[in-house]
Amino acid sequence: MYVAVKGGEKAIDNAHRLLASKRRGDTSLPAISTAQIAEQLALGVDRVMAEGSLYDRSLASLAIRQSRGDLIEAIFLVRAFRTTLPRFGASEPVDTGRMQIRRRVSATFKDLPGGQILGPTFDYTHRLLDFALEAAGDETAEPAIGTASDEATPRVVDLVGEEGLIEREPAPDPDAPVGDITRTPLEFPTERDQRLQVLARGDEGFLLGLAYSTQRGFGRTHPFVGEIRFGAVEVEFVPEELGFAVPMGTVELTECQMVNQFHGGQKAGGESVPPQFTRGYGLVFGQSERKAMSMALVDRSLRAAEFAEQQSAPAQDQEFVLSHCDNVQATGFVEHLKLPHYVDFQAELGLLRTLRQEYEAAPAPAEEAMREAAE
Amino acid sequence: MSETGYNFAYLDEGTKRMIRRAILKGIAIPGYQVPFASREMPMPYGWGTGGVQVTAAILGADDVLKVIDQGSDDTTNAVSIRKFFERTAGVETTTATTQATIIQTRHRIPETPLTEDQVLVFQVPIPEPLRFLEPRETETRRLHALADYGLMHVKLYEDIARHGHIATTYAYPVEVDGRYVMDPSPTPKFDNPKMDDCPALQLFGAGREKRIYAVPPYTKVTSLDFEDHPFAVQTFKQPCALCDAHDVYLDEIVLDDRGGRMFVCSDTDHCETRRGEGHRGAMLGTAPEAITAGGNSRV
């Protein structure tokens, strides 16, 4: 019983002990190590880092272990830890053009400078359960090895951009302050930097569903995958006392540049633009093309107002998308319905009893209609 | 007592300062929802993160904290939040309303009148009283700015047209200091009159929605109504079955599957205090032990 009875504290303690034991599972089996999770459940770890907004593989692995594999719970653990960390400042913008490419594909050009690199992908695998994994010791063949180029790999949108066929994104003012949705409450309407921050930590499933809805006609954006790339980039930071950038390490990122048709016309500011491709952008920690692509589609949809497009679909609605895509917020509020509500329920019970008494006492609807007609 | 590795009451001082600024602004503009940079807390959104942040920001080492949920000190979430502050701040906690300097609450205002030396911190799920009439924040902020509360009056009027009376029983909207319409959090409307001219400072924290608002001491708080349909609180046919209290909010307890019911105080501290003073309800002694023990005997 979880209501106001004596011993609530003890019951909670016992529940938590039981949880710890269930987390460990059958003790005749070896415990899974955090390093194993980091290595062998790497994409789950990536998701926890991305939506937890904290790039730390070992903490994310620990969170997955502690949460028994419940990724949203793990994301929550990471977020709650992240919020306690001191903030030194913002890094220099990372240059994905100088990414150490592990995978890079374009759906718009057959070949392009830097080439198409398939890398580690589930694409083109046959989704047949591999019973051999279970039987044998999970030995795998050595991967083929090539030589990485030191050359920068230009982004496709920049290649086409030179013809003016794709909207230009003006170079940002390096001195402009960087928005931070974790330090400033979101106010609508939002700027694109804030939106991208919200989407980057937004729930993969929610964004996937929204992105899918745009493909099925709810706010269509005519998208093409200009490019998806995954790899490691160096992060640099300028400490105030030094005054120049020092490398802090590398992070793995998936970037998606979606290009979308635009027939040209007046933008919201009154500026007239010729027909051109417009952009949607997705960037996430780790390898998650599903998330990066969904983010890019939703980003473009949320620019509907900017391009003076008709806004009728959920994916085009800033307040709808941005207020509901955070799974830590969503899961908390949905699951809070488990908490006792009996004070309010009592109030509603009382009201319902009154309404029913009044209903019983009132004449039947047919009689009333007759009476009204007669009057 | 304080768990190593975290600041007093969990939040860092910079965050507390930011929250205090929001609180001060809220006090300066009674009933106005102040946006604040709500932090992720180690408990879920919707489980009192706003209230916890407000409490953490105002809590001092000498404070005595009481936490209630549904009027009771021993409901799961009240226990959890009280433990959180015991661990992170090491402050003294109590279940006695009269001994607390800060009371964090979900869904109730204590029956015992509050004093000038106390602060009542409400946990708020949806701070916007107009939200279910207008889902857009851009629009509701405009309505507040213009003090345009026609939507709310129409809603209450429609209740009367349909049912003959206003059919809102909790989170019943109030007007604060003659200006802002405010959500009192999902307390039963029974508690609304306690907010009016209250000697204690009342603070409201909504973590997920990132809003703080306040009712300063001795502020006029009026429940919205019409001249011919004045506001009225819930009444109960019988007194508390344990302490015989009249004019308190009661919980209905299902005793069996044959329609057996008993009604007992929702405010467990109030009930225990009265029983300690010798008040005896009709079922005291015959009610199940778990209920008689109320919520206040902590292990």
Automatic annotation (TrEMBL), chain A:
InterPro entries according to UniProt: PhnI
Keywords attached to this entry: Lyase
Protein name (Swiss-Prot/TrEMBL): Carbon-phosphorus lyase complex subunit PhnI
Top-rank taxon, per record: Bacteria
MF GO annotations: lyase activity
Organism: Mesorhizobium liriopis
One Pfam family this sequence matches: PhnI
UniProtKB/TrEMBL annotation, chain B:
Enzymatic reactions: alpha-D-ribose 1-methylphosphonate 5-phosphate + AH2 + S-adenosyl-L-methionine = alpha-D-ribose 1,2-cyclic phosphate 5-phosphate + methane + 5'-deoxyadenosine + L-methionine + A + H(+)
Keywords: 4Fe-4S, Iron, Iron-sulfur, Lyase, Metal-binding, S-adenosyl-L-methionine
E.C. designation(s): 4.7.1.1
Keyword presence, Oxidoreductase: no
The UniProt record lists the keyword Lipid biosynthesis: no
Protein family (similarity comment): Belongs to the PhnJ family.
Function of the protein: Catalyzes the breakage of the C-P bond in alpha-D-ribose 1-methylphosphonate 5-phosphate (PRPn) forming alpha-D-ribose.
Protein's name according to its UniProt entry: Alpha-D-ribose 1-methylphosphonate 5-phosphate C-P lyase
